[in-house]
Amino acid sequence: MKENRVLTIDNLTTTFESHKQKIQAVRGVSLHVDEGDILAIVGESGSGKSVTMKSVMGLLGENADVQADHLELLQKDLLSMSEKEKRKMRGKDMAMIFQDPMTALNPLKKIGYHMIEVLRRHQNLSKAEARKVAIDMLGKVGIPSAESRMDQYPHEFSGGMRQRVMIAMALCCQPRLLIADEPTTALDVTIQAQILQLLKQLNENEQMNIILITHDLGVVASLAKRIEVMYGGLIMEEGTTEEIFEHPTHPYTRALLHAIPKCESGCRERLEPIPGMAPSLANPPAGCPFVTRCRFACEECKKGIPSMRAYSDTQSSRCIFTKEELDEKEKKEEEK
Ligand SMILES: Nc1ncnc2c1ncn2[C@@H]1O[C@H](COP(=O)(O)OP(=O)(O)OP(=O)(O)O)[C@@H](O)[C@H]1O
């Protein structure tokens, strides 16, 4: 076991029992986070990104069956932990922020109340001490006039400022792992860039380890150090950000890269959307889940889930074809 390992997920499977059907949301995911990491989990809606991290956080309801070979945070085994111990870890060791901060904030309570509540729940501080720390935290996440902002209500904050409050609340207990689930999806492009910059600063200056969940590969380019590409409950490809952007191997990763919105000219149009829909996880196909949308799919792809093929110490991909074979196929298509 590596000493600097923060999180280990080994062969995680999460299944929901609902309406007499089983939804296999996560089908054997393995990944890790090391000290200093910013890991992005990228994939279209419904690929299992959020469920993967909610399984780790213990945030799923009774209808979820979570199984894994190993699930460790800071060398502590999450699988054998009691609900009480897990609750203690949440906030203190790992915290999660979501797309819509409004759902996590009580509209009738002032921002200061929310901050002080979190601080006092996890740390033995007096009200005055907690208030001081809260103001300091709000300042740290770039909220101007933090002291007077403490006495305002959530609706008096813009979307970007509310997301900053959520980040400040998550940071109150100095968790070692911050999981940000689509933190910028509801924000406009400029504010989105500011929040991503804030996450980067927290990683560099506060040694905060981060997992960023997003459907948009474009968002992670400037932030993530490593990327996991998810589809149909499986990791389809993983690699450093450079590997994924410079030498993507899986046809799904390549399709996602082609679909990055081209914003330089101010347009929000998708370059080349991926045709078709993600498979239902209630009845996932026996083979590669991308088979119905992949331009290189063949009969062989339907037979079983391909195993991961390693291309370097850091990059591997789940496709029956090698990178060279796929390059060749792409070249032939272009020549047509
Ligand atoms: N509580 C639940 N009960 C039943 N099914 C669920 C539950 N939560 C998620 N699912 C299903 O699990 C699958 C994976 O969902 P998940 O939220 O992880 O996707 P995602 O990749 O994060 O996409 P999104 O960005 O849309 O949340 C989906 O088919 C979803 O409908």
Task: Explain what this protein looks like in three dimensions.
The chain has helices spanning 49-57, 83-92, 111-122, 127-140, 146-149, 159-171, 189-205, 217-220, 241-246, 251-258, 323-335, and strands at residues 5-18, 21-34, 38-42, 64-67, 70-73, 76-77, 94-97, 177-181, 209-214, 226-231, 234-240, 309-310, 316-317. The radius of gyration is 21 Å and the shape is globular. It has two domains: 5-93 and 176-273, P-loop containing nucleotide triphosphate hydrolases (Rossmann fold, 3-Layer(aba) Sandwich), CATH 3.40.50; 105-174, no CATH class. The protein contains eleven helices and 13 strands. The protein starts with a strand and ends with a helix. α3 runs parallel beside α6 and α4 crosses α6. β8 (177-181), α7 (189-205) and β9 (209-214) form a beta-alpha-beta unit. With 336 residues, it is an alpha/beta fold. The strands form two sheets. It has an eight-stranded mixed β-sheet with strand order 7-8-9-3-10-11-13-12, sandwiched between helices. Strands 1, 2, 4, 5 and 6 form a five-stranded antiparallel β-sheet that branches. The model has no long low-confidence stretch (mean pLDDT 90). Adenosine-5'-triphosphate is lined by residues 16, 18, 23, 25, 43, 45-51, 61, 63, 215, 281.
Count of domain modules: 2
CATH homologous superfamily assignment of the largest domain = P-loop containing nucleotide triphosphate hydrolases
Using DSSP, what is the number of strands?
Answer: 13
CATH class of the largest domain: Alpha Beta
Order of helices and strands: EEEHEEEHEHHHHEHEHEEHHEEH
Radius of gyration: 21 Å
Bound molecules: adenosine-5'-triphosphate
Please bin the fraction of helical residues.
25-40%
Oligomer classification: single chain
Widest beta sheet: strand line-up: 7-8-9-3-10-11-13-12
Using the alpha-carbon principal axes, give the shape.
globular
The fold-level CATH name of the largest domain is: Rossmann fold
What is the residue-averaged pLDDT? 90
CATH architecture of the largest domain: 3-Layer(aba) Sandwich
| End-to-end distance | 50 Å
Note poorly predicted spans. Answer: none
Give the strand content. Answer: 15-25%
How large is the count of helical segments?
A: 11
- Secondary-structure-derived class: alpha/beta
Largest sheet: 8 strands, mixed
Pfam family, one: ABC_tran
Protein name: ABC transporter ATP-binding protein
Family: Belongs to the ABC transporter superfamily.
GO biological process, one term: peptide transport
